[in-house]
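User: Sequence recovery, please. Input:
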């Protein structure tokens, strides 16, 4: 008989921080069929001080930000904005991650149990476990996720490339978010370890998006407007600049056009300045980060979702959960060609896939959708059908099956 299993999610960045990979981990493991210990950063007592975490406040009455009954939170000072081993404070954080897992291995209650460590990345999370594997190889199974941008980031450094490949040796199962990400792994890992599982969406969560969007429009003075929406970090890769330029080009043709930007990040001031310089500051609205019902309302309020993401150095869009979420709301989308975006959007059916570096292509795609309500409706319906095939229930079932095959269950 196979041993009982202990599941650990090692995730140095997690809620209350936001992001596609973080949401992926949260949505999967809060639905996991067994309790999951989440080893992650203590944002309250050790604020990272990054733009993405600037607005995180301590939860009331000492309650953790994460309240899912299935998740056992174990917060420690393990945040790293750089994964290299050339500074002692980073080495110390690698050791803290390993120590947290070692404590579970030494717990008498887990003595006869297989410990599965689910790592959000190979580097730094799985890499931190390399020393443990010398002693505990028989008891531990390592599942890691690949998102795309972390692979290209590691490949930009000899040290990180070496660390990534060493981590890949101890990984038993690698789950890639797209076929494109799997291709990026070629030459760095035994490719037989890699399985592709697209991130998903909770379709029922967005079922009332249209009605909620109408209320959100009224509350934010958007009644009678044509609304273009982007949801994502304010960084160069998401390519808000191309959408602002397109809005500026189309403003004379669409007097009611408004661009709503949901998210925060280091490019906020620059994007605001660009909108002012292009004469559309009054048409571009920055909301900051939104979550839960308010995010659903924002999706429901838009006519077109646009995020023609581009490659920024080593940074690339691995898949694009936001495209699937917009589809779940019945909205047509505009995506870029880089990375895994074409796997999230069916070009010509659920939206347009364009070269995000070509401003005229972005403008033309947006113009075609704004001008044709029937086209928006058809593409939105196709997006909804695509989203139904990626419901989180199916994603979790597939992931559990892969992990249980690994542990002999």
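Assistant: Recovered sequence (409 residues):
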């Amino acid at each position: 008989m196979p041993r009982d299993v202990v599941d650990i999610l090692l995730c140095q960045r997690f809620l209350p921080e936001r992001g596609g990979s973080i949401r992926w981990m949260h949505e999967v493991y809060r639905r996991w069929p067994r309790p999951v210990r989440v080893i992650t950063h203590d944002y309250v007592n050790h604020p990272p001080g990054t733009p993405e975490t600037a607005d995180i406040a301590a939860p009331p009455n000492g309650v953790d930000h994460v309240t899912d009954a299935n998740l056992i939170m174990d917060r420690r000072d393990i945040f790293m904005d750089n994964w290299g081993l050339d500074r002692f404070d980073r080495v110390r954080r690698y050791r803290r991650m390993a120590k947290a897992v070692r404590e579970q291995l030494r717990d008498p209650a887990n003595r006869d149990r297989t410990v599965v460590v689910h790592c959000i990345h190979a580097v730094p999370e799985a890499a931190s476990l390399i020393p443990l594997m010398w002693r505990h190889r028989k008891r531990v199974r390592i599942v890691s996720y690949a998102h795309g941008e972390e692979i290209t980031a590691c490949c930009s450094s000899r040290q990180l490339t070496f660390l990534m490949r060493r981590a890949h040796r101890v990984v038993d199962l690698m789950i890639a978010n797209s076929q494109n990400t799997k291709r990026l792994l070629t030459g760095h890992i035994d490719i037989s370890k890699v399985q592709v599982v697209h991130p998903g969406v909770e379709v029922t969560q967005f079922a009332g998006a249209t009605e909620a969007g109408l209320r959100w429009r009224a509350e934010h003075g958007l009644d009678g407007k044509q609304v273009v929406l982007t949801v994502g970090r304010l960084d160069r890769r998401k390519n808000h600049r191309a959408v602002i330029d397109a809005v500026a080009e189309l403003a004379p043709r669409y007097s009611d056009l408004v661009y709503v930007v949901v998210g925060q990040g280091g490019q906020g001031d620059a994007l605001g300045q660009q909108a002012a310089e292009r004469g559309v500051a009054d048409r571009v609205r920055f909301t900051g980060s939104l979550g839960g019902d308010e995010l659903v309302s924002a999706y429901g309020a838009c006519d077109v979702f646009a995020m023609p993401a581009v490659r920024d150095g080593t940074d690339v869009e691995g898949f694009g959960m936001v495209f699937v979420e917009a589809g779940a709301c019945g909205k047509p989308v505009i995506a870029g060609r880089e990375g895994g975006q074409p796997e999230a959007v069916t070009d010509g059916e659920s939206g347009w896939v364009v070269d995000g570096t070509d401003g005229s292509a972005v403008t033309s795609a947006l113009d075609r959708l704004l001008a044709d309500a029937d086209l928006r409706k058809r593409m939105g319906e196709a997006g909804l059908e695509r989203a139904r095939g990626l419901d989180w229930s199916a994603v979790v079932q597939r992931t559990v099956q892969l992990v249980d095959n690994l542990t002999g269950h």
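The chain has 16 helices and 13 strands.
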